[in-house]
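Q: Convert this sequence to structure tokens.
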Amino acid sequence: MKKQDILENQVNYVYLAFGSNLGDRKKNLNKALSLLKKDNIIIKKISKLYRSKSWPNENFPEFINFVVLIETRFNLKKLFTKIKNVESRVGRIKSKRNFPRVCDIDIIDFNGQIIQKKIGNNKINVPHERMHSRNFVLLPLFEINKDWFHPKLCKNIVFLLSNLSSEQLLGIKIVQ
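A:
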């Protein structure tokens, strides 16, 4: 009999950033969220939808993004595997880095921890290594947690937002 890890049933609070810039973007994002819920992931908070230019290539289609706070008993590895499965089920296929995609889900924060881990061929950095400079993550995250604190940079979200350029702040819009 396998000894159960003491942390295996721990409740984890995780911020996820969702994005889509191919096909019916809203439908893709709703399907991804629905599939996560079916995996017994509890959605605690969800931001509005935000529209932003594709990064780093602004010639690609615009993204629709949002951020959610979830509650789960999955550890980081199991959650990552679930997320990759959801992306695939929504229709994501392997392509070049930062190319248009049907569904992208990033783990932004896992219990406020700093984690660097290799899962299969993927290197996971939590908090997400570029989230502090991305308007499409920071604004929706601020909407659902104005007190969020970046554990690695030791900066609060207000500070991170204040470091975005005016072009970045004006370049994102709430989807009506």
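Residues 51 and 173 are 5 Å apart (CA to CA).
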